[in-house]
Task: structure prediction
Amino acid sequence: MNITIRGISKRFGDFTALHGLDLDIASGELLALLGPSGSGKTTLLRAIAGLEPIDDGRILFGDTDATRLSVQERRVGFVFQHYALFKHMTVLDNITFGLRMRPRAQRPAGAEIRRRGLELLDLVQLGGLEGRYPTQLSGGQRQRVALARALAIQPRVLLLDEPFGALDAKVRKDLRRWLRQLHRETGYTTIFVTHDQEEALELADRIVVMNRGHIEQIGSTDEVYDSPGTPFVFDFLGSPNVLPGEVRADGIYLLGATAPIEGPNGLQPGPVDVYARPSDFRVVGDDAAAIEGLVLETQRTGVLMRLSVKLSANQQVLEIEVPNPDPEMKVWLPGDHIRLRPAHFSLYRDRPAQQPNIVEDRSASHAAPDSRVRGQ
Ligand code: ATP
Result:
């Protein structure tokens, strides 16, 4: 089931939670709605479900205008962060609840309902636990029961609101992998809300990054990660270092450098912000395009060494990660001088609209800009 969203807005009193959003969701897609708290993810999900009436716009399920349809008519399966299982019902009764509540004419026979329930229990890898009660399950198991319950009605769309948010990190990771597998097996169009970038990157086919009721960027996980469309997206997907730079006729000069790093062609001359993640930096030798600084602190994080580096040119402190041990077997210590060059970076102009705006002919496009480049 593909979903088409056109110009939907939602207001709560004077506050606008969704500002005229457009979104196309392909049939069978696993889509993440990612953004900080209050960005409108849940409101959008609830609007798709039919739980939140919208003020403007249209929502189509396939060719059918679903804007005014009820939750039941839309046939969506919904899973919330806090598994709302019925405590007094067994696992099997929980799973088959939606089927048992159907009007008599649409309700399968009792034996068929039981068969489907057991099949779903196997699908969520809880076979044999049908007689247990929710209090006799772990958090992860309960959440899988909630998913099986959502699947029981053979939904046209599966909507998940931070489904693993309440679970500990290890269980979350396991369930992510499992959900990805389940999605492959069932092929349901699935939309899930998360504020966890790692979860979105690991699970989704595409990510919708939301900010204050707007869509900042829509793209595949690679597009969003490798070519963040706006500083906001870059910021939200990592902890960038923002370096002052300048575009001149022969390339991009980092502050204090006497030679340019390579970047895209056709850039307008003038100041730019160079965004680079900690892992984007390379330690270099005598290189006129590099930036130079003093190692302030070192911290080992497994195979990487995290360094705080104070730049000589403007005293800015960068957080970078280098392999540990260094390929040259160098052990970095506070007080060492270091020369660095970003191997990957994105460029943004400091404009109020914060559009990706460097490559002139792409600045109006909503697609990921080509401004994230490889240097050297
Ligand atoms: P979180 O990650 O914290 O769940 P979210 O991105 O899902 O956040 P929403 O729950 O969609 O955000 O909320 C978007 C905005 O709309 C927030 O500012 C919120 O306060 C507001 N909002 C949501 N529901 C209501 C409501 N029923 N009445 C008034 N304001 C609301």
About this structure: The chain has a mean pLDDT of 88. The chain has ten helices and 20 strands. The chain has two domains: 3-226, 239-360. The radius of gyration is 25 Å.
